[in-house]
Amino acid sequence: MPVTSVTTDPEALTMTLVADFPVPVERLWNAFADPRKLERFWGPPGYPATFGTYELRPGGIAHYWMTSPEGESFYGRWDFAEVEEPHRIVALDSFADAQGEVDTSMPTGRMTLNFESTPGGSRFTAVSASPTAEALEQVLAMGQVEGMTQAIGQLDAVIADLRDYALGKGTQVEVLDDQHVRITRAFDAPRHLIWRAHTEPELMKRWLLGPDGWRMSVCEVDPTPGGAYRYAWEPVDGTPDQGFGFDGETLVFEPERRIVTTERMTGADFPATTNDLSFAEDDGVTLLTLLITYADAAQRDAILATGMTDGMETSYARLERELLPVV
Description:
- The chain is of the alpha+beta class.
- The protein folds into two domains: 3-160, Alpha-D-Glucose-1,6-Bisphosphate, Chain A, domain 4, CATH 3.30.530.20; 163-323, Alpha-D-Glucose-1,6-Bisphosphate, Chain A, domain 4, CATH 3.30.530.20.
- It has helices at residues 25-33, 35-38, 133-141, 144-152, 156-159, 162-165, 191-199, 201-207, 297-304, 308-323; strands at 3-9, 14-21, 49-54, 61-67, 73-84, 88-95, 109-118, 121-129, 172-175, 180-187, 214-221, 228-235, 244-254, 258-265, 273-282, 285-293.
- It has an eight-stranded antiparallel β-sheet. Strands 9-10-16-15-14-13-12-11 form an eight-stranded antiparallel β-sheet.
- Helix 7 packs across helix 8 (201-207).
- The longest helix has 16 residues, at 308-323.
- The relative contact order is 0.13.
- The model has no long low-confidence stretch (mean pLDDT 93).
């Protein structure tokens, strides 16, 4: 976790976050200057940001929204006051509506982002100043500390060279808390190919098989939010009563970027999980990130104990070996 400290000062009406990174300050700055990179980490897990407008200059604005796993959007706006590449950004930080107009019923703060070189790389310092003590209490109660910490905690993967950071390491699993697990897998292929492999049934049937000896007998997908999907597998040798499947609902579908679905084993009594799958490309390498939300730690541990991630890696390796060369 790159975040080294988060402090609040009720007298100065500020929250200050500090994070250190092992990269030059120019690379750190670029993650904030490029809206496509900014979208990859701004917003806590499960609430990625989309920047519709991004004018990084004094007098410019940024209009963005964070989309929940249920498809609900939360809007914000920055009005840039100072931009000093690659060291400093100062902006008024406001809640907004879908058109980018400031929501005057909510407090507007002042956000100062500082970037500096260090012996080990670079340091990022964010200072959020509220106009009143009541406003500070309000944004803290809304989870500002947790949200910023989680957002900046995702920055490592954005500023890293993906070829060094994730390529060749297989399927990586990170337990975030009792209800959340993050799984990542990198592919030496452009994003549009990995997206096709996950959304076109005729391609999915060629790699999404788990261990050898199984075939995908059902692959029905409705990508429309609110639409249903169903997958089923059976042994290639036709052994009866050994098949299984999953079904659920599509919640969010953003082409070549994000798919959020519910998932439950067909016919089982277990609660459904929420699977938030995102696709990010950098220099021809695509990083696949799956954030799974479980009902509780018991369900999380029971599903992980099935060897789920080993089966995922077998499928991903098959995708690389058999599908990518010919798609």
